[in-house]
């Protein structure tokens, strides 16, 4: 005669305090969950990036706005004009990477000036509150005036640039944030390419 | 001690045994490994939630709190609706809450967040950023999210093997797991939307997400998981005569395909400007609802049969008449027919609910005659007298 008192596990079914008869679903769930959680990152780690920027590639920043990315960098996120998929100027994100350097470009809806937008960005990003450089003006080849700040620290170098994507009505135009971060003491290596990218930022034809 | 003897009584006892109706449920089962896996998943998921929202809580406090409040309110009609759907099986609230917590914490933040991040990057590497932005979401979410949520059902089978038996059990539990996932994801969307504008207009941002996600949520995670989990139960075949591997695979696949089509509607309908805008609402939403209704109808068959067997001795004794039995164990058209017969919608609904109560009490008593069964029967007879 066996006991079926709720919660009582017969001695022959005990294993490390657990009921061996109930192990199957738990092991299955744990195995599949771990496979999803760690399996995909493992696959991701072995698949190499292969979206290098080629000569002639132009970034689509939405609403007709464009920028010319540096050749040879990996395009990890973003849309090229040649993709012809149509992007929103206030939602588009671009990520370019090369060795320890990363360029992020983010479109946002913001009413106000480029300087006010950069202030809002700094207010919302507490982690970057140590930005030390004084704000400077940066004018693109197309005549778009932006605000730039830089910072340097033991974690690396950083540059933040903000633009309002219209020369005629900047207050209501979408904003563009360009964030560049590089490994310590390597900013100089990329500064020419970064300056060329910033200079190439062009607002849409309707601006 | 339970009496046996009549074929109706034997069928009733067999239905109680097969269905598990009335079986107790307790989450805290230290001898059960499924409990520990649930605790690990929900625990790590909860830490993930705190870390994710905590990082930007100073700046995005308004977006997070308004997201929680808005979607907390949004949850109420959903719970009322799903409680109504629980009529055939009456799963205990604690079991459904266990599933909801899995969907909210574990499936969303323990599994989907890291798995989706990695998989989306794989698609970006393979298809390029433009290809990944068009197809990445649809090729990622149906795998990681449907499986992540479905694992909650497997754990509940381990935690309550007697209660989780039929396709309809999977349907209802799946809906609750999916609802947990959905609300969790919606709060995440409210937070992410606020970060896209660097914290400007956070409450407006949450309201926008509530309007957008609230509407599309009608045919979102709760629906996908209900269909997927009914499919899992058919594959496992835990109730006599309920093993339908082909049907189960078709249901799981249907949920994943609907999820894919919804996430990648932009890519699927890019060839036509009208469809690009209208197809998700005019094509995919109705299709999802049709799939849901077909699965619900197929899944409820066994539970409705158990309901008839549970009440069979009561029919023999004249407590329940055939029309009421058809209504309480039937489909919408049967209840509509019964309402016409009674000529009073409210009274008909009370009779149906009362007959359901009696079935639940009989199951909880294991078929024995207890004061609660006698009371439920008296209540039904009182109502029937009033209906006569």
Automatic annotation (TrEMBL), chain A:
Write down the superkingdom of origin: Bacteria
Swiss-Prot/TrEMBL keywords: Membrane, Transmembrane, Transmembrane helix
Q: Where are the transmembrane segments?
A: 23-43
| The UniProt record lists the keyword Transmembrane helix | yes
Q: What is this protein called?
A: Uncharacterized protein
Organism the protein comes from: Paractinoplanes abujensis
Task: Kindly list the organism's lineage.
Answer: Bacteria, Bacillati, Actinomycetota, Actinomycetes, Micromonosporales
TrEMBL record, chain B:
Which positions, given as ranges, span the membrane? 33-54, 60-82, 94-113, 211-237, 244-262, 274-295
Q: Which UniProt keywords apply?
A: Membrane, Transmembrane, Transmembrane helix
Q: Give one Pfam family.
A: PrsW-protease
What InterPro entries does the database record attribute to this sequence? PrsW
Q: Tell me where the signal peptide lies.
A: none
Q: Does the keyword Nucleus apply?
A: no
Q: Which GO terms describe its molecular function?
A: peptidase activity
Q: Which PANTHER family does this UniProt record tie to the protein? A: PROTEASE PRSW
This chain's protein is named RsiW-degrading membrane proteinase PrsW (M82 family)
